[in-house]
Specification:
The complex is a heterodimer.
Chain A lengths: L8 H4 L6 H20 L2 H26 L7 H16 L5 H23 L4 H21 L1 H4 L5 E2 L3 E3 L2 E3 L4 H22 L2 H11 L1 H6 L4 H27 L1 E2 L6 H14 L4 H35 L4 H15 L4 H16 L3 H15 L16 H4 L2
Antiparallel strand pairs in A: 1-4, 2-3
Chain B lengths: L1 H31 L6 H18 L4 H24 L7 H23 L14 E4 L2 E4 H23 L1 H11 L1 H6 L4 H23 L9 H16 L4 H21 L4 H16 L14
Antiparallel strand pairs in B: 1-2
Helix pairs in contact in B: 1-5, 1-6, 1-8, 1-9, 1-10, 2-3, 2-4, 2-8, 2-9, 3-8, 5-6, 5-8, 6-8, 9-10, 9-11, 10-11
Classes of the chains: A mainly alpha, B mainly alpha.
């Protein structure tokens, strides 16, 4: 086990606490750099979605994970970013300008949502953000002079400095990856600044934060604005990736998916946003694979254990019928959410930390290290 | 004027359905501080149970109704045991996510079993109207209003007058203290879920003649019931019904007098305004932390 000897605050807030981090992130970066040239175009396309979802996840993590304000309305912020891009593109505004404009506008809207949210906590905030998302969705469907209503809008191929960047090419992948990496670095820096510390203080106890002199209202609005702005930037990329946007893409379902991203990844670290995005985006190809191959595999196993060919054939048929049933994806989503909440509340990154600690402390690892405290008293829940 | 009254009555009937779903939210919230996002889906499942008993097995309407309510009460207990009990006491957000997951699961399983078509339950008051002067009121809508009033009164009395109701309120206030006082907290929570599921089933069955039941009906109506519960102040039984009726009336008025599109957003706009001006809702109690 490696012991980090910290002598001052500078040591404590380093982005790379020791050289191992540089090596492992370097390897990861190298892999990501060669990925579009070795992986199939389908997987690269999924990787682009991972980048976009992870960017949204980072934005949501700032708000939900670090400031403790739940939101089920992030699809609306994504929509505002996407529509800003599509609208400005009609007037031949260059990409860098509308990219930033999308982020800025969404940030302003986020701040506007943040003001009413100041007085709300917990369930009330969740419902208020859902309402906001519904209103945005309806506005997008009705404001036809700008958004073309339910017909949706075409988004032209992205062009950067006179070069076309098709949404399936490696260049677009690198653009999304670059945005994700910059967002992560920016967020890490934000979190070790006084603003980030204030966010965490508000999450842990609003009352305590206020009594330590943190301006709770100001920082909550800031958190909303920053989170929304990042989601808006992701929205611009999202619009380009899909090359067509319409209001019914940005429903509550999408907001829930974003929450699933950070929930499955682990809501206490930025790693969680990326891991969750990988999980959520890759579940689709995985399910397709299951649908195609699982019946054969299970029938094969049955045959090896002495089932005759008729029984094996029956098993094959039954499993195939279950695997291709309509709406199976929804059931699997539901089960995954419930299982994660029940058994892995710290998410995938939490599991990784547990495994790491197990080997570092071997054989002295204790399960109770990661046990969460339960609160049974109502007044304790008012932070 | 006649149009107005007609709209008012249909708004109230719709609002009573929202109110019934919101009652389920409020019951569970009152007793356990858990917000059940799957409440609408419990309603949907209850509707499908009733459809199976009445429409497919051909039972008598009231028998099928009772059967569905009992079956769903058992299901509510099961859902509580499997999904909610292990995480009681954890942050609210985790529990919300777990119930969202439960909702996903129920919707898609129902879609797989019963298909995604619309279904209709034949009821004794499906057709037939009550005429007062030139005002025409359908029996199915009146039945919803009557059932809501009865259920609301029963539940109100139950919570405020019976020992079990008091035990529920006590365990909501402080689970540990309630446990030390000899209240079987786990059983209490389980019973609350059973009652909430039963109320949801009643809503689902009464709703079936008005809007058909299909696998997504719970999501759509559940999301409308949220504003109702919040408007009433999330912990108040009469509040839930009043909130539901307000939302229903606002929705049907907006659909009638305002341009297209306002109908769906009007409840949410009202909700946001209420949250801005009076975050604890119309009947809620504001909670503060003592330092």
């Amino acid at each position: 086990m490696r012991f980090l000897f910290k002598t001052d605050y500078e040591d404590d807030i380093r982005l790379f606490p020791h050289s191992g981090y540089i090596v492992s992130y370097g390897i990861l970066l190298a892999f990501l750099a060669v990925a579009p040239f070795v992986l199939s175009s389908y997987l690269v396309s999924q990787l682009v979605f991972v980048c976009i979802y992870a960017t949204v996840g980072v934005g949501l993590m700032i708000l939900t994970g670090f400031t403790g304000q739940a939101s089920l309305g992030h699809a609306a912020f994504l929509a505002i970013g996407a529509y800003t891009a599509a609208y400005l593109q009609q007037y031949n505004v260059p990409f860098p300008v509308y990219f930033l404009a999308g982020g800025l506008l969404t940030g302003v809207v986020g701040a506007l949502v943040g003001f009413p949210a100041l007085r709300l906590t917990g369930i009330y905030l969740v419902i208020a953000t859902i309402s906001f998302a519904f209103i945005v969705e309806e506005v997008l469907a009705r404001w036809e002079s700008v958004t073309h209503g339910n017909e949706g809008m075409r988004v032209k191929t992205l062009s950067l400095f006179g070069q076309a960047v098709p949404q399936n090419g490696p260049a677009f992948y690198f653009l999304c990856l670059g945005v994700l990496i910059l967002t992560i670095i920016g967020t890490l820096n934000l979190l070790r600044s006084p603003t980030g510390r204030a966010f965490v203080a508000i999450r842990d106890s609003e009352t305590a934060a206020r009594s330590m002199g943190v301006n709770v209202s100001l920082y909550k609005v800031k958190s909303f604005a920053i989170s929304a702005a990042i989601t808006g930037l992701a929205g611009v990329l999202f619009a380009h990736k899909l090359s067509f946007i319409s209001p019914e893409m940005f429903t509550l379902q999408l907001s829930i998916e974003f929450i699933i991203v950070i929930l499955i990844g682990g809501t206490f670290s930025l790693h969680g946003a990326v891991l969750g995005a990988i999980f959520l985006v890759m579940i689709d190809p995985f399910l397709t694979y299951l649908k195609d191959d699982l019946p054969v595999i299970i029938a094969g196993i049955a045959a090896t254990f002495g089932a005759d060919s008729i029984t094996a054939g029956k098993i094959h048929g039954n499993v195939a019928a279950i695997a291709s049933a309509n709406g199976l994806k929804g059931a699997i989503y539901g089960v995954i959410i419930v299982l994660f909440v029940l058994f892995e509340p710290l998410g995938l990154y939490g599991r990784w930390l547990k495994i790491k600690l197990f080997f570092q402390l071997f054989p002295l690892y204790k399960r109770a290290t990661f046990k969460r405290q339960k609160i049974y008293v109502k007044s304790e829940r008012n932070r | 004027m006649l149009d107005f009254v007609q709209q008012l009555v249909s708004g109230i009937a719709l609002g009573c359905v929202y109110g019934l779903i919101a009652l389920g939210f409020v019951l569970i919230y009152k007793a356990t501080e858990v917000v059940n996002f799957a409440q609408g889906d419990l309603m949907m499942l209850g509707g499908f149970f009733a459809f199976t008993f009445i429409g497919m097995l051909g039972l008598n309407y009231w028998l099928g109704f009772a059967g569905a309510v009992i079956a769903m009460a058992a299901f509510g207990m099961l859902a509580e045991r499997v999904v909610v009990r292990p995480i009681l006491g954890y942050p609210q957000f985790s529990i919300i996510m777990a119930t969202i997951g439960l909702g996903y699961f129920l919707r898609s399983v129902v879609g797989m079993i019963w298909g995604t078509d619309d279904f209709k339950i034949e009821t004794p008051f499906s057709d037939g109207v009550l005429r007062i002067g030139s005002l025409v009121l359908a029996y199915d809508k009146l039945s919803v209003i009557a059932a809501t009033i009865i259920l609301c009164a029963l539940l109100y009395l139950f919570f405020n007058r019976t020992t079990l109701g008091t035990a529920m309120r006590a365990s909501s206030e402080n689970m540990l203290a309630a446990y030390y006082m000899g209240i079987p907290v786990k059983r209490v929570v389980s019973i609350v879920w059973a009652i909430a599921a039963a109320v949801a089933t009643a809503a689902g069955v009464l709703l079936a003649p008005i809007t058909f039941i299909h696998s997504n009906v719970g999501l759509v109506l559940g999301l409308k019931a949220f504003p109702a519960a919040v408007l009433g102040g999330f912990g108040s039984i009469p509040g839930a019904v009043v909130g539901g009726v307000l939302i229903g009336v606002i929705e049907s008025m907006a659909g009638f007098y305002l341009p297209q599109g306002w109908k769906d957003v009007a409840p949410y706009i009202v909700l946001l305004v209420v949250l801005l001006l009076k975050p604890e809702g119309l009947f809620g109690i504001h909670m503060r932390k003592k330092v």
